[in-house]
């Protein structure tokens, strides 16, 4: 299924019931819905705020909302949901490992049952808030170390996706889409289980020379200029740059995809603005 259909079918289910005013289509700034921008959001906790969410939200198309394990809490999930609705942004759940001190970026062993239960708990929490506010959960994207663990372990990924399927609407509706890395278990196991898959490109963290995504800790510090160069190259040449600034071909760039950015980075607002500007300028050509 084309990515534009995946996104549009999710967005059609978002409610704009009163008192919310009707909003323009979420793809108003993208190139025929082929490229969208997603951002990890709602990653504060209690009185601790992280990231300029209010400034970022109008610039993105999909918000990945933290679910309470690596960051987030009930009030933050609720405020993030309302903020996304106000900007007509599709909402996804962003579950992580139960590691709030390490911000979900430290790897440790987990069992299939732990992954399944954690996914049910976290996705279910965001889904409940979104639905209570009159919307529908549009996608799921794992966070940090969990994202890489699921990439490298099909068994753990199946446990995670079992929970995602359990929380999806019943047939004939499509399951909640999964956002992840093309050409990895993320994509193949989703296909195996009949879950719509949305490939994503990272521009504020690096890939190695073989096209393998590196963690935040392994990547260079992003700059506004570097991100803009990457995005422009992706849109023009269908290739990105690896950690050594060498051209890197990623086959999924020939089709539809979403560009991921992180709200917790010090330059997050500049990074997202640079990406938004590059996508908008290309779409006007």
UniProtKB/TrEMBL annotation:
<dbReference type="InterPro" id="IPR011330">
    <property type="entry name" value="Glyco_hydro/deAcase_b/a-brl"/>
</dbReference>
<protein>
    <recommendedName>
        <fullName>Lactam utilization protein lamB</fullName>
    </recommendedName>
</protein>
<feature type="compositionally biased region" description="Low complexity">
    <location>
        <begin position="1"/>
        <end position="18"/>
    </location>
</feature>
<dbReference type="GO" id="GO:0005975">
    <property type="term" value="P:carbohydrate metabolic process"/>
</dbReference>
<dbReference type="Pfam" id="PF03746">
    <property type="entry name" value="LamB_YcsF"/>
</dbReference>
<dbReference type="InterPro" id="IPR005501">
    <property type="entry name" value="LamB/YcsF/PxpA-like"/>
</dbReference>
<feature type="region of interest" description="Disordered">
    <location>
        <begin position="1"/>
        <end position="25"/>
    </location>
</feature>
């Amino acid at each position: 299924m084309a990515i534009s259909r995946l996104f549009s079918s999710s967005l059609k289910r978002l409610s704009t019931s009163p008192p919310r005013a009707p909003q323009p289509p979420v793809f108003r700034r993208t190139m025929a819905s082929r490229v969208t921008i997603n951002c990890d959001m709602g990653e504060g906790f209690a009185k601790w705020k992280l990231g300029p969410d209010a400034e970022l939200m109008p610039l993105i198309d999909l918000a990945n909302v933290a679910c309470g394990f690596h960051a987030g809490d009930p009030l933050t999930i609720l405020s993030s949901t309302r903020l996304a609705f106000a900007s007509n942004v599709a909402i996804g759940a962003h579950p992580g490992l139960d590691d709030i001190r390490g911000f979900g970026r430290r790897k440790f062993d987990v069992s299939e049952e732990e992954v399944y239960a954690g996914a049910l708990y976290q996705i279910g929490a965001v889904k409940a808030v979104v639905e209570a506010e009159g919307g529908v959960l549009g996608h799921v994207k794992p966070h940090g170390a969990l994202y890489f663990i699921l990439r490298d372990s099909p068994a753990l990924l199946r446990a995670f996706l079992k929970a995602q399927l359990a929380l999806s609407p019943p047939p004939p509706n499509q399951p909640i889409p999964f956002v992840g890395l093309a050409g990895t278990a993320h994509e193949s196991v989703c296909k195996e289980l009949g879950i719509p898959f949305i490939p994503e490109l990272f521009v504020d963290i690096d890939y190695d020379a073989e096209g393998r995504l590196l963690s935040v800790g392994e990547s260079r510090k992003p700059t506004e200029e570097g991100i803009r160069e990457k995005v422009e190259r992706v849109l023009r040449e269908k290739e990105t740059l690896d950690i050594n600034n060498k051209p890197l071909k990623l086959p999924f760039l020939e089709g539809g995809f979403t560009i991921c950015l992180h709200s917790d980075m010090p330059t997050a607002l500049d990074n997202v603005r640079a990406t938004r500007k590059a996508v908008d300028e290309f779409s006007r050509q």
